[in-house]
Design brief:
The complex is a heterodimer of chains A (196) and B (465). Chain A is α/β, with parallel strands linked by helices. In chain A, 37% of the residues lie in helices and 18% in strands. Chain A has one domain: Aconitase, domain 4 (Alpha-Beta Barrel). In chain A, a hairpin with a 4-residue loop joins β5 and β6. Chain B is 34% helix and 17% strand. In chain B, α2 crosses α5, α6 packs parallel to α8 and α13 crosses α15. Chain B folds into two domains: 267 residues, Aconitase, domain 3, CATH 3.30.499; 174 residues, Aconitase, domain 3 (2-Layer Sandwich), CATH 3.30.499. The chains are: A alpha/beta (196), B alpha/beta (465). Chains A and B meet through α5, α7, α8 and α9 of A and α2, α3, α5, α10 and α11 of B.
């Protein structure tokens, strides 16, 4: 995965709370291989039911502004694949499901936390239209429709998004410690191994 | 003298291989449970030419896509099941496939097989992995990238969550159980009320729960946004585990009991947040909307959006529109089209006993499906005569799997249909596109079945012990 520092594009508002991962990608699409592309599955049912849905009208959106508890529910990383393959690079919300936020960062998608008031103001500004947006990881700011806001992001995640780190490579540096830990753990607590 | 510690701090310390300067810990994973949905992670491992680091600690089960009824299996479902089998065999992982007597929903068979133990760190690519915390295990769900990392290294990078204690005082009333308790606190704190936290459940009403009830409570931690749930192990825990297939035996068992007995929060340990609940104030609870936080006592009424403001009003309007409900209508007047009993939340033997207690000698007014949480639960329920009670009441008795909870294995609720369900999520489209889900306990599902509408189970339990 390649990292990024700054993106410029267009933002739209999805003024809903609790957009769970079942809505982001209905379960029936999750057996598809990733190489098929998950973009068409994003918010599939609501987009099909509402032809004028904001993501149908602005299919080139890069930044999504939405309400609290975005990405709650199922741990399905496919919800992030759907957003990323659709072209979304950052989601701004007051809060995210914990597992979703981890999955997002692991796929280069920024979960940017803004306050409820900031989000409501952006939703008012954007309305049903789109607006120019710039997101800068180095300064931790998002400029949407002319308003520049500082978002809350774990510094570890900031680094990961910028560098596009792969944890498996990072962890390989600790192989010796892991091997020793396993041996010590099961020597001290033999019950922790599955009985045979 | 060391400072008093929470159970979370003890579990964390026991699994921490190292900590980076930025505060992220590399944790050792004792058990990794995988299912059909883990195919992205296996593909990632394959693409790097890597093998599973600890196949002896990795267990695979067919559950999400498991067909529960006879008939043709769709090609994509069969492919998902076959892919898991192929990956498990290629990597030397123990597989519980459809014909295995140990098969079932991953969060049901973990405890049942004795794979879940106090003091272990357990991961699975499923948000309801919080279930296993009922044993005093550090158990949390992860996404596909993290599943691949665990397969490759048997470790996971994590920051320690904050810790919240929910203390439940008093005694739960008759007809009120762990499901009602969970929906009650989620309605109080919100579906993101515990975000970023590990929850420790404590107090007499929690200690008084059976192992099955504790599993239900911890299972639903994620629906309140928590990273994981925890209950200190005690005699109830030990009695449940003794003799289970993969649980320790002999001298290992004795040492385990010693180690597990100290897995409790020390007197005076600090929590980031404390919540206290009075068990006696909880009524049988049902959801009316499209988030688990939309829960109310069955004696209540559907909320009126006009009495709310701003984003909350919009949210309630959208929920009532999707659910096809009118503002202010009594919850007991909501007619249901069908019922479902099962899932990792409420598909265990005790859940089936409670539902059967309500259904015995009565007829369901609507169709319904009962899917036991595992093949072993199915066998036991048949031996106890519960299956017969369900079928005599007019409900369909099926095989085990995630079934109608996930809408990906052929068991679905049709668009516009309303289902009283013992599952965990009333999200839009969760049980099928356009499906309307009301969450409740299995006893309350049984009450809805025999009434034809949402109903208070308490009068139906009178005179039944």
């Amino acid at each position: 995965m390649s990292g990024w520092t700054k993106i410029s594009g267009r933002a739209v508002a999805l003024p809903q709370a609790n957009v769970d991962t079942d809505q982001l990608i209905p379960a029936r699409f999750m057996s598809a291989p990733r190489s098929d592309g998950y973009g068409p599955f994003l918010l599939h049912d609501v987009r099909q039911d509402q032809p004028d849905h904001v993501l149908n009208r602005y299919s080139h959106a890069d930044v999504l502004v939405t309400r609290r508890n975005f990405g709650s529910g199922s741990s399905r990383e496919a919800a992030v694949y759907a957003l990323v393959d659709f072209g979304i690079k950052a989601v701004c919300a007051p809060s995210f499901g914990d597992i979703f936020a981890s999955n997002a960062v692991n796929n280069g998608l920024l979960p940017a936390r803004l306050t409820e008031d900031e989000i409501e103001a952006l939703i008012d500004t954007l309305g049903q239209a789109d607006a120019p947006a710039t997101v800068d990881l180095s300064t931790g700011t998002a400029t949407i429709g002319g308003q520049t806001l500082s978002f809350d992001l774990d510094p570890v995640w900031q680094q990961k998004l910028v560098n596009g780190w792969d944890d498996i490579d990072l962890t390989a540096q600790h192989n010796d410690e892991i091997t020793k830990f396993r041996a010590a753990r099961f020597a001290a607590h033999p019950w922790a191994l599955p009985a045979t | 003298m060391t400072a008093p510690q929470t159970i979370l701090a003890k579990l964390w310390a026991a699994h921490e291989i190292m900590q980076r300067d930025d505060g992220t810990s590399l944790l050792w994973v004792d058990r990794h449970l995988v299912h059909e949905g883990s195919h992205h992670a296996f593909a990632k491992l394959d693409s790097r030419g890597m093998k599973v680091a600890a196949p002896d600690l990795t267990f695979a089960v067919v559950d999400h896509y498991a067909p529960t009824r006879a008939g043709n299996v769709a090609a994509d479902i069969r492919r998902m099941i076959n892919t898991l089998g192929r990956n498990a065999r290629a990597q030397g992982i123990r597989l519980f496939d459809l014909r295995d007597p140990g098969q079932g929903i991953v969060h049901v068979i973990g405890p049942e097989q004795g794979l879940t133990l106090p003091g272990l760190l357990i991961n699975c690519g499923d948000s309801h992995t919080s279930t296993h915390g009922a044993f005093g295990a550090l158990a949390f769900g992860v996404g596909a990238t993290e599943v691949a990392h665990i397969l490759a290294t048997q470790t996971i990078w994590q920051k320690r969550p904050r810790v919240m204690r929910i203390t439940v005082n008093g005694v739960l009333g008759s007809g009120v159980g762990a499901k009602d308790l969970a929906l009650h606190w989620i309605a109080q704190l919100g579906a993101d009320g515990a975000r970023g936290h590990a929850i420790e459940y404590a107090g007499p009403a929690v200690e008084g729960l059976s192992m099955e009830g504790r599993l239900t409570l911890c299972n639903l931690s994620i629906e309140g946004g928590a990273r994981l749930g925890l209950i200190a192990p005690d005699q109830v825990t030990f009695d449940y585990l003794r003799g289970r297939k993969f649980a320790p035996k002999g001298a290992d068992w004795d040492q385990a009991i010693d180690d597990w007995s100290v897995l409790k929060t020390d007197e005076g340990a600090a929590f980031d947040r404390e919540v206290t609940i009075d068990a006696a104030a909880i009524a049988p609870t049902v959801t009316w909307g499209t988030s688990p936080e939309d829960a109310l006592p069955i004696t209540g009424h559907v909320p009126d959006p006009a009495q709310l403001s701003g984003a909350k009003q919009e949210q309630a309007r959208a929920a009532l529109d999707y659910m096809g409900l009118n503002a202010g209508m009594p919850l007991e007047s909501v007619a249901v089209d069908q019922v479902f009993i099962g899932s990792c939340t409420n598909g265990r033997i005790e859940d089936l006993r409670l539902a059967a207690k309500v259904l015995a000698g009565r007829k369901a007014k609507v169709p319904g499906l009962v899917s036991p949480g595992s093949a072993a639960v199915k066998k036991q329920a048949e031996a106890e005569g519960l299956a017969q009670i369900f079928t005599e009441a007019g409900l369909e008795w099926a095989d085990s799997g995630c079934s109608m909870c996930v809408g990906m294995n052929g068991d679905r609720v049709d668009a516009g249909k309303r289902c009283a369900s013992s599952t965990n999520r009333n999200f839009k489209g969760r049980q099928g596109r356009g499906a309307r889900t009301h969450l409740m306990s299995p006893a309350m599902v049984a009450a809805a079945a025999v009434s034809g509408h949402l109903a208070d189970v308490r009068p139906l339990l009178e005179g039944r012990s």
